[in-house]
Amino acid sequence: MTSARAVALFAPLLLILGSFETAHSSDELQEVVVSAQKREESINKVPISVAVLGRDEMEKRGIKDFADVAAVAPGVDFQNEGTFIDVSVRGISSGVSGASTTGIYLDDVPVQIRLDSGVVVSTNTTPLVFDLDRVEVLRGPQGTLFGAGAEGGAIRFIQAQPSLTQYSGYTRAGVGTTDGGGMSYEAGAAYGGPIVDNELGFRVSAWHGRDGGYIEHSSAIPGGAQYNDSGWRNSDVFRAALTYAPVDFLKITPSVFYQQVHWNDEPTFDNGSGTYSDTMTQNWGSLNPTYSNVSAGRLVFQGYLLQPSDDKLFLPALKVEARLADIAFTSSTSYMHRKYDGEQDFTTPMSLFAGLPWPTTAAAAAYSYTPSTLNVFTQELRAQSTNVEQRLQWTVGLFYNQARQNNIQYLVSAYFPTQVLQSFGQPIEQVFGQAMLPGNISIYEGEPDTDTQIAAFGQLTYQLMQHVGLIGGVRVARETDKYSIYINGPLNGPNVTSFSGKQQETAVDPKYGVNFQLDDNNLVYLSAAKGDRIGGVNPPPYNFPACLAALAALGYPDASALSTYKGDSLWSYEIGAKNRLFGGRLQMQGSVFHIKWSDVQQNQNVPDCQEGFTTNRGKATSNGFDFQADALVTDALRVGLGVGYTNARNATTIISGGNPVVSKGQQINPLAAPWVIVPTAEYNFTIAEGHKGYFRMQDTYHSRNPGPYNPNTDPENPAYVPYFIPNPAYNQLDMHLGTTWSGWDASVYALNALNSHPLLFNQSQNPATFVGSVFTLRPRTIGITTAYHW
Predict the structure, then answer these.
(1) Which one, of 265, 343, 341, lies nearest residue 310 by Cα?
(2) Which residues, in sequence order, are bridge partners of residue 396?
(3) pLDDT digits 0-9 by tens, 132-163
(4) Which residue from 134, 138, 170, 121 is spatially nearest to 37, judged by alpha carbons?
(5) Domains parsed from the chain with CATH numbers
(6) Residue 40, SS3?
(7) What DSSP line would sit under 178-216, residue for residue?
(8) Is-above-0.85 flag for pTM?
(9) CB of 366 closer than 8 Å to CB of 228
């Protein structure tokens, strides 16, 4: 169902609701304030493409986490694979192991990470949505003011701050049920206010949520996991902040943020079709595997083991703000500690990796345990002008960030020596060159990695004449990545692998722009901005003859040539406009962009090596536009539309070993949707005196990526990947019907109301993922939510 058809479907309901007496509402839309330029100002004066979701808007749309935010922001696409999320802005996507291309900020603190280079573990942590003032999505490179990973854009989660003058509170609770799945629920509260008027204030909040599972985990191997409603997630968030203002010009705000997310299993399933199911029937026919029936809403995963994960984030921070004359000084200090623990079922991949028969006994169970820790210290000092009447507005600052990350992988496989002896007639020491490590470990990998960035930045806006302003800015950063790896165990062969490397660069990111502020409600701007991301170090390839031969065929006879890769950079050119029309009843913003990306970091998959490597490959372009409109059609009816189009393709053809590894015109990210369209409608009416009713509807449409895709999808290519399947086009329709009175808001909702089950990130024919590895939208979820503000 297209977005237009979804809107048409509910048009009669809006007409029926129109028979009610309409509720009185404001005769104009609320003006939006953002801090996208490190100062609070109206969005109509900010020459950046910004999507903003305020507290009320997020509550109306049922937004609970990062995936919900990314789904409704035009120009943003995300790869949401349960515990793994990779986000791209305007087609600029990480897509590989390495530094992030999208900055993720909690207030002033960057929380994104470098994705791992060899261990299958890490993903970016993303803040959950509770007691936030707003979320700002900044599209386009933000290297001048947000340099840590903001090559394609930045997403900022702005938390509610302590008040020194008044008390306020917020509670939210709800329960829901998912079609074919378990119950979901949430409960949270926030409260704050002055301890000493105008001198000392506090804000505390706590929230717990559970997303019910909807996967039937039914092991094809007897004795394996049998778990209905698997793939559930428990989440906890706690925050406390204190603001001390000993004098009028000084504020000191210490705070602490804690978040824990636990998955009991990956929300993946086997789609029950394709060549891999034939292989399953051939190998497990006598075990009678249970397949999914996606059209009927039955989603089955047949892995032997559950795949739980636990992600904890602890973030203390200190913000100091001082105002002297017309200058504001800000110091932001933080130390983030993150601990991630995950397990993956390696029962079948273990056999495939070692060339052993397909497992049919519980004794062959094997799992990969991947603990990871991340410690990040960040310090930013900045000063900026505050007198808006001055013709020159400026911001200057210094930034330091050090991220120390340590990924570890243990592959535990107690039955491996027996499998080897049965298959080869020789003990494991003779076949692989060494015995198992203590604890039945067949391979151990440790990967310490340290990223350091030291930067100075500044940005000026000069009012050349009454309606024309010029912008100039630059960020100069010294970026260093230090990486090492240690690998041991029989699956690594007879020898221990130890390797370390270093990559260091200086990045200069300028920005230029011209603003035409026609009046307080209308802005036209032109900008050119540069963004970059640091390079890195590749782990050495496995020392297998087949792996080395495959690398040689690709043009890398000397594997040491792959040890490092450079940073990449881009220039983004943008024309945009922001308008507030018809007395504030219509707000619009739109922009058109052209991006030129150089030395693009891309991944080269090498199946014979069981993994790939990252290298710099040519150039790419991304062209497109984004548009947002919000209109108060009547005092009762409000409609909105968000549209994003992105055409991101490689601009060069690269031949390696006589075969194309990158083709001109191929999609940078073949899983990204070129079109994202989000229409919304809200109708308000009066139920009784003091009680207002509302009906809200939102449809989110993602188009299919038309290709062409990576040359790896060509059967004639030595690095052919036979299991790539592009995402289909799909819709998600959400609805809310509720009432408000005296600070209360109660509603019933239907999320994914049409119960759409698109097969997303489908690798159903990839034997290395054991079974299926297909994701989908959460099935239809119906529930009730109640919130109270005071």
Answers:
(1) 341
(2) 383, 458
(3) 888 899 999 998 898 767 898 998 999 999 99
(4) 138
(5) 3-789 (2.40.170.20)
(6) coil
(7) ETTS-EEEEEEEEEEEEEETTTEEEEEEEEEEEE---EE
(8) yes
(9) no
